[in-house]
Amino acid sequence: MKRKNDRGFPDRQAIVAFIKANQGNVGTREIAREFGLKNADRVELKRILRELADDGTIKKKRHKVSEPDALPPTLVADITGRDQDGELIASPTEWDEVESGEPPKIRIQMPRRPKPGTVAGVRDRVLLRVEPTSETEGPAYRGHIIKVFDKAKSRILGVFRSLPEGGGRLVPVDKKSADRELNIAAADTHGAQDGDLVSVDIVRTRSFGLASGRVKEKLGSVKSEKAISLIAIYAHDIPLQFSPAAMRDAEAAEPANLKGREDWRDVPLLTIDPPDAKDHDDAVHAQPDEDPNNKGGFIVNVAIADVSFYVRPGSALDRDALDRGNSVYFPDRVVPMLPERISNDLCSLVPGEPRGALAVRMVLGPDGRKRSHSFHRILMRSAAKLSYAQAQAAIDGRPDDTTGPLLDPILRPLYAAYACAKRARDERDPLNLDLPERKILLKSDGTVDRVVVPERLDAHKLIEEFMILANVAAAEMLEKKSLPLIYRVHDEPTLEKVHALAEFLETLDVPFAKSGALRPTTFNRVLAQLEGHDYYPLVSEVVLRAQAQAEYSSENYGHFGLNLRRYAHFTSPIRRYADLVVHRALVRALGLGEGALPDSETPESLGEVAAHISVTERRAMKAERETVDRLIAHHLADRIGASFQGRVSGVTRAGLFVKLAETGADGLIPIRSLGTEYFNYDESRHALVGTRSRTMYQLGDVVDVRLIEAAPIAGALRFELLSSSSETAPRERRPSGPQRRPSFKAQPGRSPDRKRKPGKPKSGKGKKGQGKNKGKNKGKGGGKKGKAW
What we know:
By secondary structure, this protein is an alpha+beta fold.
């Protein structure tokens, strides 16, 4: 029975029960239809839903509502063990324990006759279709395996440590396995020397004592930076070799020709990329619109490498690309999504060579808004390959031999079109978090030379804005054609994060409106108030941490950071599988020929792909971040005892995390080393506060530290505090309100982190759940070298 209250509305219990029964697919429209509510009743219904969201009974995600922290219908999970009945138990692969607590358990239901590729075991990674259970005991969810991604590893990566009596031990590089060493017999060392990075096959396990292993491959000494990226590659199971079938397909591929294409070889498109870019997948061109009805407007052309022509659905190349999900960029190497024959040759838009491309022609009005767009499958010839600095120098009056002839006919119209597009961008007012990106420069021997912060130029912003426009056009076109697609989505911050941010800003006497519709402008106003102030870097970090993380989805709930209603990734199919799917959908929607999205693809099947590539994106980001940490720790290992200036980048009950100004490296100052008094963790202030002296160390404080320990394999640094800069010396304030966290006495020999597991290092990256989500590669369509939005 659909219970209603005295006003004729369904009561709260009935609404919540309906939401729970239809997890992930319920919005205002569905609830109104279920309970027979008229249009005039929707204002009251929205009020009730808002109340339910405010008190935490439900969670609101744009136009959909669900139970708090409910799992999506499709997700990637790791099988962690079995229950007492022998059934497999899994947990979500992506889960923020800091924010959401213990991950929910999922009981795997195996059919009597499982389909090929759906038989899994403990430690396997799988794609699941999940649904909540009505059971009062046991896991809250049950799951059905759609696909097995990764089988449990029988080979592990570690550092070989020789023993005097012969043979040795393997110390795994995986922090989760760091306390599970393997015994290597003398006959099984394969010539490994002490300190070598090796891969080992597990040959025997024991109930008691050490398991045994056999060295399969020597990867080099951990003392060499060239081996450090391999640690992340192996630790995160990033595929390094392409299948023989994929390589055969790549080598057999031939250059595109005019068959089925428009001839754009006379359009002077050019590429603008970082100076060390190996592949060039986008080219741009702009000119004033000659239409008298669009005076002051521009025509902008964006051409993207036609990867769908070479990578056909279901082919060996396609299977390998989907498995990888994206390219992974390290300081010393790239692990590409596609073989070099495709990515660096046939699909790279190199100057002077005919290349197949999928292009979008966009008409901008004088106000910068896109008036219309059309897609074309073309054959093009790039007029030039420029770096950002090179293009900017030409516009700033310093052209070189390459840019001089291009300045008036090509570069000036490009910049004029960008100035026009910027008007609409400024009116749209996307989230303005332009935080500095550091880049590691290596010497020829692979060692760290220096860490730099590349200057943010208008050339970067020009390419970024044109890529965003092209991405929006792709999403709009596919929606118009009613074709399924993979969106790039970014949810608005949760209510809890918004309240936490407001409480923090209140401690700085910065007003922040928590009520009303949340928009990027809300955060931009706060940042604008503090620009040039000592607190600006601090507030920028806290605002960033309040944001949700972008992901891929077959369901559109908008892009909060860019302030866009619909958005898809279209501009980098060489390095992102999501873009390849969008290309295929456009080919199918517009009847552009071969390589189209199969008719069998549905929103449900693309939802499975989106879940997988969201995980591979997180995997790549984590591997890239860990490699940078290890490289810098290796670089600083011979500077123990040196002093550095840095800024407090994280505050936890364990101590202070400090980011060094010189290298951007993060390290920990353990709370026990701050002094002899107790320090309280003040969550609202992001601070540690001394109970006796009231000394406060807060996120964003500038501090001087001494390097005490560097652990290159873990990528961990440990500091001791020397002093605080006069700019932001530790304040002697009494925190407002009650303390939320227990205090810990800062004294030698006592760890403040009482829950630390044995074998887990005390130093290193500890900011779990703070994901900055910054792209380390060419993040086009969200910003090259920018936030991965």
